[in-house]
Amino acid sequence: MLQDSYGHLREKVQIRIWRRPGRSVDRATTEHLFEVINSREDVSRRLIRRCAYLKYVEARLGDRTLYADELSKDGVCLNMIDSPLCPLKVVTNLPEAVWDADIVVNDLPSTETRVPMENILYLRGPNIASEIYKKEYANARICGAEKWRKPLAKFLRQLHFIVWDNGDLVTHEVVGGLKNVYAIGAAFTHREEVDALTFRQWSFDFIGLLLPLTMEFSVADGGL
């Protein structure tokens, strides 16, 4: 989406993606990815020009292991194997990713980035990557200081991508953590083989116990 809208500003805006290293790609995914690459002439030519095609051949033969971060550098998202994107500037070392950044858009811990709180923004939406790529309707919320939040919300908005903005960064990060607690509780109560009232009551008691603990931890940690 950014490439289509602002690719001509590549020399003025530098975007770096930080990704945790070490996530390997399984053999089945590697084989499917190789088929996708060979079915897209533009992708295979791009990899050949970047001297990156051979590693996919070796991975297909089982002679090497591919990692998610190197796929991202080649423009492949592990969650969207069938939709190769443009190559990204991917960094696996967090301090290196943010050392000269004007702003950080993510929910990265501020204690690790050393970036002032007012320059950190939180962007989150309900599994929006596929929808954005297909130019289907999607929405997200960006939170943080107004001096960056308002311009970035405008920068990101498209006809098919609605970006809401809100200044309460901490609350949105806390709520993002709480959804995991709700998911655990929902999984417990959905178990058809355990339909006893005592189990259901225990599940909700468990959620009630975790909620204040999660909120206390998130707020104490700055919610970031």
UniProtKB/TrEMBL annotation:
<dbReference type="GO" id="GO:0005829">
    <property type="term" value="C:cytosol"/>
</dbReference>
<protein>
    <submittedName>
        <fullName>Uncharacterized protein</fullName>
    </submittedName>
</protein>
<dbReference type="GO" id="GO:0047952">
    <property type="term" value="F:glycerol-3-phosphate dehydrogenase [NAD(P)+] activity"/>
</dbReference>
<dbReference type="GO" id="GO:0006072">
    <property type="term" value="P:glycerol-3-phosphate metabolic process"/>
</dbReference>
